[in-house]
From TrEMBL:
<dbReference type="GO" id="GO:0019646">
    <property type="term" value="P:aerobic electron transport chain"/>
</dbReference>
<keyword id="KW-0285">Flavoprotein</keyword>
<feature type="domain" description="FAD/NAD(P)-binding">
    <location>
        <begin position="5"/>
        <end position="319"/>
    </location>
</feature>
<comment type="similarity">
    <text>Belongs to the NADH dehydrogenase family.</text>
</comment>
<dbReference type="Pfam" id="PF07992">
    <property type="entry name" value="Pyr_redox_2"/>
</dbReference>
<protein>
    <submittedName>
        <fullName>NAD(P)/FAD-dependent oxidoreductase</fullName>
        <ecNumber>1.6.5.-</ecNumber>
    </submittedName>
</protein>
<dbReference type="InterPro" id="IPR036188">
    <property type="entry name" value="FAD/NAD-bd_sf"/>
</dbReference>
<dbReference type="InterPro" id="IPR051169">
    <property type="entry name" value="NADH-Q_oxidoreductase"/>
</dbReference>
<dbReference type="GO" id="GO:0003955">
    <property type="term" value="F:NAD(P)H dehydrogenase (quinone) activity"/>
</dbReference>
<dbReference type="InterPro" id="IPR023753">
    <property type="entry name" value="FAD/NAD-binding_dom"/>
</dbReference>
<keyword id="KW-0560">Oxidoreductase</keyword>
<keyword id="KW-0274">FAD</keyword>
Length: 407
C-alpha cells in the first residue's frame, strides 16, 4: 500500500515549523512528507532589516534548510510552486514538474503592498525576502561609491516610507550601519540623511503614548528626520514626492508600509477573502478536508469581524496545531481548534534600543533590546536547539548560503 503524501508549500516560519512538528508526530512509515521552497535556505524574516542595512552577516539571517530538517523524515525540494490543481490533488512547479499530494499545507507567506502609489513598485526597495533585502544593501554601497564620484547629496539620502513596526526597525539599523560605511568611504556622517515618512501623526501610532514618545526620542537623537503626518504620492528613481508638492531628492526609498497575502494563491480555485485563503477554526481551507493554510497567506478570523494579523507570532503558534490536525485527519481522529495567545510585540531601534510590550510589561531602552534578542534566540532554539544558537552567534563555519541579489 502506498503511503499518504503530505506536501508543505513554503519553508518560512509556518511551513518549516509544521514540517519539524510532523517529524515528531508521525510514526515511522506513516506518511511521506515533502517540503517545497523556492530557495534552499530559510531566512529570519523578522531580521531582514539587518541584511538591508548590512548590520548582520548573511549566515545569521539565512540558514540552509537541509541543516534544519531531518532528511530521513522530511524530503526537501528546492522549487518554485506555480499552481495547485485542487481537483486532481497535485502541485505544479516552475519548470513543468508535478507533485501529487493527499494532504496539502499552503504556507507561502506575504507580498509587499504598494497600494498602487505611482512609481513605488518600480523604484522602491522592499524588505520582503533575503534577496530583496540584500538588494537594498548592495544599492546603498553603490550609492556610496557613486557619491565619491559626483558628490550628489541625493545619493546619501535614505528614505524609509512607513513608520510602523518594520519601518522604525529599518531606521534603527540604518542609523547603526551607515556610520560604519561613512568611515569605510571616508565620508563625514553629517552628509548622510536618514528620513522617515509616515502618513499618521506619529511613528508606531498603534503603540501606547509612552512608547511613541520613547521611539520618537530615540529616532530623533539618532539624527533621523521624522516627516510624520505626510502622505507619499509618488516615487521616481531620483526623488519622492509628498503632499503639498514637497519633493525629496533621493535614490533610495525603502518601502515599509504594509503587506498582503501572497497573490500567487489567488488563481488556484481556492476560496479567497481579503486577498487571502480563509481557514476554519482547525486551520483547514474553508470547505476542504485535506487542504490547510497558515501564516500570512491565510485568513483566520479571531472573531466575527477581525482577522489575526500577519505576524511570525501567529504563524509560529499555528504551525504545531496545524501539524497535529494534519496527522489527526490522516488517522481519522478529532481535530483541535486553534487558539491564539498574543504574547506581546517588541520593535528594535538598532542594536541598543527597543520598544514594546510583553505580557503586561511595557519595555524600552536597553532592556527592551535585550528582550528582542531573547525572542529571536528562542525561535532559533525551537528550530535547532542550543547548537543552532551557537552556530548563528559565533559564526561556526558551514556551507555558505548562495544568493544572487535581485528583487
Ligand atoms: C522586516 C520584518 C520584520 C518583522 N518583524 C516581526 C516581529 O518582530 N514579530 C512578528 O511576529 N512578526 C514580524 N514580522 C512578520 C513575519 O515575518 C511574518 O508574519 C512571517 O514571516 C509569516 O510567516 P509565513 O510562514 O506565513 O511566511 P514567510 O515567512 O514569508 O515564508 C513563506 C515562504 O514561502 C516561500 N515561497 C513564497 N512563494 C513561493 C513559491 N511560489 N514557491 C515556493 N516557495 C515560495 C518563501 O521563499 C518563504 O520561504 C516581520 C516582517 C518583516 C518583513
Amino acid at each position: 500500500m502506498t503511503r499518504p503524501k503530505i506536501l508543505i508549500l513554503g519553508a518560512g516560519y509556518g511551513g518549516l515549523i509544521t514540517s519539524k512538528s510532523l517529524e515528531k508526530l508521525l510514526k515511522s512509515g506513516e506518511a511521506d512528507v515533502t517540503l517545497i521552497n523556492k530557495h534552499d535556505y530559510h531566512y529570519l524574516t523578522t531580521q531582514l532589516i539587518k541584511t538591508g542595512a548590512g548590520t548582520a552577516a548573511d549566515r545569521q539571517i539565512a540558514i540552509s534548510i537541509p541543516e534544519l530538517i531531518n532528511s530521513d523524515k522530511t524530503h526537501f525540494l528546492k522549487a518554485a510552486v506555480s499552481s495547485v490543481d485542487i481537483e486532481n490533488q497535485e502541485v505544479h512547479l516552475e519548470g513543468g514538474n508535478t507533485i501529487p499530494y493527499d494532504y496539502l499545507l499552503i504556507a507561502l507567506g506575504f507580498e509587499v503592498d504598494t497600494y498602487g502609489i505611482p512609481g513605488v513598485k518600480e523604484n522602491a526597495f522592499q524588505i520582503r525576502s533575503f534577496r530583496s533585502s540584500k538588494a537594498i544593501y548592495h544599492h546603498i554601497i553603490k550609492q556610496f561609491n557613486l557619491y565619491k564620484e559626483d558628490s550628489d547629496p541625493s545619493r546619501l539620502t535614505f528614505v524609509v516610507a512607513g513608520g510602523g513596526f518594520t519601518g522604525i526597525e529599518m531606521l534603527g539599523e540604518l542609523a547603526d550601519g551607515l556610520p560604519n560605511l561613512c568611515k569605510q568611504y571616508d565620508i563625514p556622517f553629517e552628509k548622510v540623511r536618514i528620513i522617515a515618512v509616515e502618513a499618521a501623526p506619529s511613528v508606531i501610532p498603534f503603540f501606547p503614548k509612552q512608547s511613541i514618545q520613547y521611539a520618537t526620542f530615540v529616532l530623533e537623537k539618532r539624527n533621523i528626520e521624522l516627516l510624520t503626518g505626510r502622505k507619499m504620492l509618488e516615487c521616481t528613481p531620483e526623488k519622492i514626492r509628498l503632499e503639498n508638492n514637497i519633493d525629496i531628492p533621493t535614490r533610495t526609498l525603502i518601502w515599509s508600509c504594509g503587506v498582503k497575502g501572497n497573490t500567487i494563491v489567488q488563481n488556484w480555485g481556492l476560496p479567497i477573502e481579503k486577498g487571502k485563503i480563509p481557514v476554519d477554526a482547525c486551520l483547514r481551507v474553508k470547505n476542504m478536508n485535506n487542504v490547510f493554510s497558515i501564516g500570512d497567506c491565510s485568513l483566520f478570523m479571531k472573531d466575527e469581524k477581525n482577522a489575526l494579523p500577519p505576524t511570525a507570532q501567529v504563524a509560529l503558534q499555528q504551525a504545531p496545531i496545524c501539524a497535529k490536525n494534519i496527522v489527526a485527519t490522516l488517522r481519522g481522529e478529532t481535530l483541535k481548534p486553534f487558539e491564539y495567545h498574543h504574547k506581546g510585540s517588541v520593535a528594535s531601534i538598532g542594536l541598543m534600543a527597543a520598544v514594546g510590550k510583553v505580557g503586561n510589561f511595557r519595555l524600552s531602552g536597553l532592556f527592551g533590546a535585550f528582550m528582542k534578542q531573547v525572542i529571536e534566540a528562542r525561535y532559533l532554539f525551537n528550530l535547532g536547539g542550543p547548537a543552532l544558537i551557537i552556530k548563528q552567534h559565533f559564526g561556526v563555519s558551514r556551507e555558505p548560503v548562495k544568493v544572487t541579489a535581485k528583487q
